């Protein structure tokens, strides 16, 4: 019998708690596979955030720390400064990274901290029940923007990758999506590149992954993928904003 | 080793390095800025890392990360900065991360003043952050004690896997006194086999965490922590006390204020008034038991503090209603004077004559 | 024996430095010492002051409040501010070069030293502070001049050895100034 698929050794056997159709599972898998493929799983130290992926420390099969809301980049800084030879990553959502933890991510990037951030953007607060995020789109209804987000009241949705790409210390910045098999393959490539950026000691690396939240968006998983394609990608264009090769 | 004259803030840094601390994350604030200044020079020389964080919040979370990664790590600040660190402190307590936090207290509330204060007593002893947790808290009264207790703090942090606070005041930070650095005690401390260092394929993964989504699990965790705190209450109380057996008045003070009180006690003695003293060196755990040694003819207890009277609660717990408790203090950065304290002592001593 | 001295003047007059020298010299003689500076906005321009205590016993309050045994004042604002901090019989050493008024109190010992002129005589106006310190040490005998010079190298570094003779001259000149008057 031929083995055609095997769960990555980068993941534990703990079953995910994520909602049906949520793409966190896919993104976890990509990160875990990357750590294994690069041969760094045993050197990896991950930092889990507060939000839907708060339990990520149970799923990644490596040493993990659980951080306070938004502080994962500060915690990762502490870890990496103590263990510069280890591979350190944060896994954060949009409420965590783009709202309460903006200062931490901006300054970690600014210092060129040599860790890798996986930033999962689903345009909403999932864990707390579908409130408005800084990444929530204009007109998007959430439990704290019941009539839809307006520019007048809340400003435009924040584009983190574009902002971080302006920072010298951020050596790899790319936005990807996991809505199609092709995009998932591209996402995997970007994640790998982001870890290589760290391993080669280039500086800070971040991959923003557009993700769905069928539960809080109120769509079926398939419809949620369609909504991501029709609404998120036009506002959050996919692509590479910074690569360390350019900086040579 | 011979004595050197050192400023309190610099002595904190030197003591930390002597104790094996190699990581410092901080943010400048008066009157503790010489701690990061000193560390920025001395730590790289000692093979360590100093990092000026973008905020007090980030600094404390960097301490969390570094401590969780197994390092001896410290941060230092002053009152408003320590308020900002409370998030990281409660997380470190919950995740059982050893670390040392130095507070050179200044006048408050809010931005307050930059002159010395002791109004962070509640914050230091009652838990400044959320949840059921305790932090060992040393209140040194001289630069020598500051050095000694900073060094001890690292050992205790490791022994109990707990954050340890140093609650000093701006005067301690700014003052220079002679100090002698003793050899680090480093008695048999437990191995940090829980730290995140990468599994190297040789062990199960380690997780540093304060989250327990199941209430039962969270309660179990809290009960386990409570056992640790009880052990600290049994083993870690430190205080200085004298004259309790025949005192007409007993003064209670800590930190720099205790030295001013000692001067006042000498003045009182010259006037024929017997004054005893209790000086808590650990603000938590608190030396409640020593209050039993106060003679029953004592006319009252006088708490003295650079605050509006935050230490009074613990005095009342200690004295169990056996005698009246009074307070004398200055606040907002003002410092009590020996004369002011003496006047209060005289009032209490003469009250029933 | 316990000496509680306030040193005060403009920022840049070397007030903090002579405070540290006295404390260090006391420590070298195995005495108990403390040096407490004013800090904060005060140290950004304007007056600078520090409180130094040198004692045979453990130092109680490191603050000096109405119980100073001596004060070295190098400018006029310092005289107004610290005259009242002395005990009756306390020594007030006034820099006559910059202060042309007399203290109000009559229950203290007052000494005048033209520190800036005397420093100019030595060819270096920067040592006016050392002249004041020399006068203070002569009046109180709290430490030996040699201890101050030893402390000088400890505080400012061994590479300042070449400045020791000048500073020794300044200390002695200050001492001489108050000897004459006494």
From TrEMBL, chain A:
SUPFAM superfamilies: Thiamin diphosphate-binding fold (THDP-binding). The keyword Oxidoreductase applies. GO terms for biological process: cellular respiration. GO terms for molecular function: 2-oxoglutarate synthase activity; thiamine pyrophosphate binding. InterPro entries: 2-oxoacid:Fd_oxidoreductase, THDP-binding, TPP_enzyme_TPP-bd. Gene3D superfamilies: 3.40.50.970. Its EC number is 1.2.7.3. Keywords: Oxidoreductase. The keyword Oxidoreductase applies. Residues 57-209 form the Thiamine pyrophosphate enzyme TPP-binding domain. It is an enzyme of class 1 (oxidoreductase). This is 2-oxoglutarate oxidoreductase subunit KorB. It comes from bioreactor metagenome. The gene is korB_23.
């Amino acid at each position: 019998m031929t083995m055609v698929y095997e769960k990555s050794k980068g993941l534990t056997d703990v079953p995910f708690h994520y909602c049906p159709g949520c793409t966190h599972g896919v993104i976890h898998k990509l990160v875990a596979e990357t750590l294994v493929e690069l041969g760094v799983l045993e050197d990896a130290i991950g930092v889990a955030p507060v939000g839907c992926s708060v339990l990520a420390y149970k799923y990644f099969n490596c040493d993990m720390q659980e951080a306070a809301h938004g502080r994962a980049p500060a915690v990762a800084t502490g870890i990496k400064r103590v263990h510069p030879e280890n591979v350190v990553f944060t896994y954060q959502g949009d409420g965590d990274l783009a709202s309460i933890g903006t200062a931490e991510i901006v300054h970690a990037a600014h210092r060129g901290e040599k860790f890798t951030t996986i930033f999962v953007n689903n345009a909403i607060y999932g864990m707390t029940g579908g409130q408005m995020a800084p990444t929530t789109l204009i007109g998007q209804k959430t439990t704290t923007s019941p009539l839809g987000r307006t520019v007048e009241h809340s400003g435009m949705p924040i584009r983190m990758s574009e902002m971080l790409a302006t920072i010298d210390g951020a050596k790899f910045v790319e936005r990807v999506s996991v809505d199609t098999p092709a995009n998932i393959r591209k996402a995997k490539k970007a994640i790998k590149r982001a870890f290589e950026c760290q391993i080669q000691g280039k500086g800070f690396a971040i991959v923003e992954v557009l993700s769905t939240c069928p539960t809080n968006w109120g769509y079926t998983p398939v419809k949620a993928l369609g909504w991501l394609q029709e609404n998120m990608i036009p506002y959050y264009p996919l692509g590479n904003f910074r690569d360390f090769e350019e900086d040579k | 080793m011979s004595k050197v004259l050192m400023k309190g803030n610099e002595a904190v840094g030197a003591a930390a390095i002597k104790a094996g601390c190699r990581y410092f994350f901080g943010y400048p604030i008066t009157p503790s800025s010489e701690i990061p200044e000193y560390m920025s020079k001395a730590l790289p020389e000692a093979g360590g890392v100093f990092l000026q964080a973008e905020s007090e919040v980030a600094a404390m979370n960097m301490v969390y990360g570094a401590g969780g990664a197994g390092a001896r790590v410290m941060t230092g600040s002053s009152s408003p900065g320590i308020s900002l660190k409370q998030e990281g402190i409660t997380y470190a307590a919950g995740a059982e991360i050893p670390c040392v936090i130095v507070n050179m207290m200044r006048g408050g509330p809010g931005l307050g003043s930059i002159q010395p204060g002791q109004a962070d007593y509640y914050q230091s002893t009652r838990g400044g952050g959320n949840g059921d947790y305790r932090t060992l808290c040393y209140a040194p009264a001289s630069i020598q004690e500051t050095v000694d207790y900073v060094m001890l703090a690292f050992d205790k942090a490791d022994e109990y896997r707990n954050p340890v606070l140093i609650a000093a005041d701006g005067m301690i930070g700014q003052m220079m006194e002679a100090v002698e650095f003793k050899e680090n005690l480093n008695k048999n401390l437990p191995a940090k086999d829980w730290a995140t260092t990468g599994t190297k394929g040789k062990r199960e993964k380690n997780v540093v965490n304060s989250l327990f989504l199941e209430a039962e699990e969270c309660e179990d965790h809290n009960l386990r922590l409570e056992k640790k705190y009880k052990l600290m209450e049994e083993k870690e109380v430190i205080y200085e006390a004298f004259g309790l057996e025949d005192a007409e008045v007993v003064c209670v003070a800590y930190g720099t204020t205790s030295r001013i009180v000692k001067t006042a006690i000498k003045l009182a003695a010259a006037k024929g008034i017997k004054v005893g003293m209790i000086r808590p060196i650990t603000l938590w755990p608190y030396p409640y038991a020593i209050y039993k040694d106060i003679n029953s003819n004592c006319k009252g207890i006088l708490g003295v503090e650079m605050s509006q009277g935050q230490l009074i609660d613990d005095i009342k717990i200690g004295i169990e209603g056996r005698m009246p408790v009074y307070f004398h203090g200055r606040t907002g950065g003002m410092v009590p004077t020996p004369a002011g304290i003496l006047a209060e002592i005289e009032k209490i001593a003469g009250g029933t004559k | 024996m316990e000496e509680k001295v306030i040193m005060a003047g403009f920022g840049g007059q070397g007030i903090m430095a002579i405070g540290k020298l006295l404390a260090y010299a006391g420590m070298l003689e195995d005495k108990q010492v403390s040096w407490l500076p004013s800090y904060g906005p005060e140290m950004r321009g304007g007056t600078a002051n520090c409180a130094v205590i040198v004692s045979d016993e453990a130092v109680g309050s490191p603050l000096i409040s109405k119980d100073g045994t001596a004060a070295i004042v190098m400018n006029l604002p310092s005289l107004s501010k610290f005259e009242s901090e002395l005990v009756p019989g306390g020594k007030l050493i006034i820099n006559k070069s910059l202060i042309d008024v007399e203290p109000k109190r009559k229950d203290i010992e007052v000494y005048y030293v033209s520190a800036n002129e005397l420093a100019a005589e030595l060819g270096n106006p920067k040592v006016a502070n050392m002249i004041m310190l020399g006068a203070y040490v002569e009046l109180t005998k709290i430490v030996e001049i040699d201890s101050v010079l030893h402390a000088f190298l400890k505080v400012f570094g061994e590479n300042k050895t070449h400045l020791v003779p000048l500073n020794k001259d300044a200390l002695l000149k200050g001492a001489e100034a108050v000897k004459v008057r006494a």
